[in-house]
Each structure stands twice: as structure tokens, then as C-alpha cells.
Amino acid sequence: MKQGTAPATQGVRLAELVATVSLATDLAHDVASESALRDAMLAVALARLAGWSHADLRDTYYLALLYHVGCTGAVAAQSRLGGGDDIAVRRWLSEADFADRPAMLRVTVTKVAAHWRPTDWAKTFPALMTAARDTPEALARIADVACGLSERLGAPAGVVAALRHAYARWDGKVFTALPSGEALSPTSRLVHLVHVAQIYHQVGGVEAADAVVRARSGSEFDPELARLWLQNSHDLLRPFTGESVWDEALAAEPAPHIGVGPAHLDDVTRALADFVDLKSPYTHGHSPRLAQLVEGAAGALGLEASETATLRRAAHVHDLGNVSVPDAVWMKPGPLGAADRERVRLHAYHSERIMSVTTALRPSGLVAGMHHERVDGSGYHRGVAASVISLPARVLAVAEAFQSMTEERSWRPARSASEAAAEVRREVSEGRLDRRAAEAVLNAAGERATAGHRAPAWPVGLTDREVEVLRLVARGDSNKKIAQTLHVSESTVHTHVINVYGKTGAKTRAGATLFALAHDLIEAPTIENRLNG
Fold first, then answer.
1. Is 183 helix (H, G, I), strand (E, B) or coil?
2. Where along the chain do its domains lie?
3. Contact criterion met (CB below 8 Å) for 79 and 328
4. What angle, 0 to 180 degrees and rounded to 10, lies between the N-to-C axes of helices 54-65 and 14-29?
5. Terminal-to-terminal C-alpha distance of the chain
6. Was domain 11-251 assigned CATH 1.10.8.60?
7. For residue 325, is pLDDT > 50?
């Protein structure tokens, strides 16, 4: 992968930022890096053969890059089916024909269930038995999250709309609530076909890609697009011989290119924060809270505005590499084995690798990749000593340690702010955390805790009670559990949920959770929440 080379002074192309997001979704699916970039090039080439307009070519390009951006919206369901390995489920079910029950069973048994441990069977087999019933709902959650995130990323309106149909079929089977045939978004039809064909091409070459397109023509795929693919597949799938997939994919964006201002970088990194934090109920809102903390510390240290912006964005994306780690690892109540520890250690590397591809985000990526480094060289992923760790990176390391300690995790309860501060000071005294950075972070944390207490004005006209309900929905509570928590009837909760959906525009619980994350409505999880949940 070749890094972008355009000087920042020339502005930022939206395609570069969205292409960066696509690298994260590749990681979340455990597919070859730059798979989505190849999808985008193939999709635009096929759309040109179909004679599509410039607007349709542009939407096709961005839809291919954002095709999987909602994938963290259904981690819980994927994890149940995969024995805790949500990544394996996403990878293997991407190639399946959901209407072919024997094929689905074969993929599930040979690919997905192969990851189950003996202890997983009792809880995972029931999920397998209800998979056909639960899959449409899970994909609706993914679509809801994809639409919300893509809109915040700046995707064209046609792309946001097409993501609602991203997994729909030409014949209307399985996902009966979605359009079918000619009523189905043309860009969705084309990108879906290209994506599946490319998966098969990676494994078995052109013949495998053509075979799956031929077999599913008229059922899963638009028959006219399938015919066009089969007529041109050898040219479309010619061996890649360029120097850089990244550069070629950016060159494939239909002109004129979409440019964005520097301020949009915060929109992108904040959207990525919610993308990764949505993966686990223990991390909802973690990255934006961390960004607020480091921004306060940067002010106390007198950092330049550019350094503060870099640090804030690094906090947003520091955990992006977490999408490479199966849900079971993050949810494990006890110690991790050696293999799991190594996957966790690599998440900082993946965050840096993804964010450093494009010039505009590279400074934040370099800082993000050091959020677990320690000044005595005992940290990871590099294990470097103090001379290599910049002041912003030292601030991020202290702030991440403090913020994480004050939030509950599957293996421990949350610590109080005073307990976390004492632990930070101990780490300073033992030479692992930077003293100056620690003082700034703890000062900022104290200011945050004692900030003004005026009643907030909730977004989109939400009432206090509706915000309470939204927070419990985001936590994963059922309507019955919410009713018990708030001491109201289940029917009252149902009414509140309907009102929340109507005001926020969400269609699923995942979409409502994403809205809460985007508007800082999620409170830090506590052990009391989890024990009562």
C-alpha cells in the first residue's frame, strides 16, 4: 500500500478519507487489505460499460468504498452465531447465497462453526437455528448504522439512500421488506454483484467469479448486470500490475473530484470513533470522551492549535484497530491467552497503519499508534523509549489509561476517578508515564468532573425521559428491562421508543445507539449498569 503524497495545502479529497474508512472495514472482515478499493475500481468500470451517467458513476464509486461501513452495528448477533468470532461470521457470510439453505448450512458448518470451541456449542447452536429469522433484522441494523455514518462522512445523498438496499436481492427473497427487481437501487445492485464476484475471484480466479455470477443471475443478481459482467469479466479482472492499488483506486474516482475543508477531518475521525466504539457496549462513547480529555490537557500544556487538533483526532481513532479483534476477546471475563494478547497488542499497529495512508490523517495516525507506549520502553506496539515519544503521544497514553480505568470492562469494574488518578501517579513514579503529561491530564479530568451543572438542551427535541430511554436502548436493554429500571409500564416504554425513533430518524436500535454516540448522549458504563442490565 503506497501512502498518499498530495501536500495538505492542496486541500483534502473526500475520496482519500472514505478510502481510509474502507481499509478499516476490510480489517473488520478479515479480508485482504484494499479489497474495497478493488471493488470501487471494478464497480466504476462495470458502470461505465453500462453507460451510466456521471452522478451514477460517482455514487457507485463511493458506495463500493462504504459498502461495509455499518458492520459494527450487528456485532452482538454476529458474535452469537460465530461463537464469539464476529469477524469470521462477517467474512464467510459475505460469500453466501442467503436464499440457498443447503449452501448456507454448508458455509455455516464448514466455515463458521469451525471456529466454535466445545464450550460454545450450548449457547451458539440456538443462534444457528434462528439465523434465518434473525439475519434480516441484523442486516437492517447494519444498514441503519451505515446510513448514519456515511452521511456524517460526507457521502453523496444517493450513496446514503443506496446503503438502505445494499444487501437486497433482485428476486426479493429473504429480505422481503426491501425493494426488489427494478425498484431496487441500481447502484446497490451493481456494487453487490461486484463485491460477491470479487470475493470469489480472490479465492478461485475469474472462473470462480463468473460461476457465482452465472449461478445467481436472476435470483440474487440483476440478470442484465450479470450478463454485462460475464461478457467483460476477463477484462475487468485483468491482473493488477500498477505500483499502488491505493493510487489507482483514487484515480478511478469519477471527475470532478469532491473536495472538503480541513474541518471535515474532525467529522471523519469522530465518525470512525463511533464506528469502532459501537462494537462493544463497554466502549460506547469511549473515544469521544477521550478526545475531550486530551483536548483539555493540550490546553493546559499550551500546545499549538494544530497539535491539539492532531491529538484530538488521534484520540478519536486510537482504537480503530480494535475491529481486527473478535468480540469474544473483548468480552472475556478472565485473563487472555498468548494468541489473544498478541491480537490485542496489534490493534495499535492497525490504527496507525490505516490512518497513516493519507497525508491529511497521517499525523494523527502516528500519535494514535503510540497510545499504549510507555516512556520506559515497556509499552506496545513498538516498545520504544521516551526519546521517540512526542508530547502529544505521551498525553494520549496517560489520558487513555485514565479514561479506560474509569470505565467498566468485561474483566473488571470501573474505578473511581480518584482511584484512577492514584494509579496514574503510581505509573509516573515508576517511570512508565510522563509526569508533565499526567499532571495536565489529571488537571483536565478534574475540570471536566466539576464543569457547569446547567440542564442540557437535548438534540432534536428529545425530552429528559426520552434521553433516559435512549441511553438504556443503547445499553442493549429490552423494553421490559427498561420498564423495570424506570418503574413505568412496558407500553409507556414502547411509546417512548417510537418517539425516539421518530425524532432521531433511527429505524433500529443500532441506529438509535449511533445517534446517541454522535450527540454525546452516552454516559460512561458503570458496574451498577452492568449488574442491573
1. helix
2. 11-251, 264-449, 459-532
3. yes
4. 40
5. 44
6. no
7. yes
What would the grid cell of residue 491 be? 407500553
Cell of 210: 463468473
How far apart, in whole angstroms, are the C-alpha atoms of residue 173 and residue 218?
Answer: 12
For the chain, give the percent of residues with pLDDT over 70: 87
For domain 459-532, the CATH architecture is Orthogonal Bundle (1.10)
pTM for the full predicted model: 0.88
Element (H, E) at 333: none
Domain 11-251 and domain 264-449 have a common topology:
yes
| Residue 397 amino acid letter | A
DSSP bridge pairs for 409: 412
Q: Say yes or no: domain 264-449 is CATH 1.10.3210.10.
A: yes
As a whole number, the mean pLDDT across the chain is: 88
Cα 212 versus chain centre, distance: 28
How far, in Å, CA of 314 to CA of 331, rounded?
Answer: 24
pLDDT band at residue 452 using 50, 70 and 90 as cut-offs: very low
Coil, strand or helix at 252: coil
Cα(15)–Cα(264) distance, rounded to whole angstroms? 12
- Read off the C-alpha cell for 245: 492499488
Low-confidence winner among 128-137, 289-298, 515-524 (lowest mean pLDDT):
128-137
Task: Please answer whether residues 153 and 19 qualify as being in contact, where contact means their C-beta atoms are separated by less than 8 angstroms.
Answer: no
The rounded distance, in Å, linking the Cα atoms of 516 and 506 is 10
The distance from CA 295 to its chain's CA centroid, rounded to whole angstroms, is 23
Nearest to residue 201, comparing CAs of 22, 63, 24, 32?
32
Query: How many residues in total does the chain contain?
Result: 533
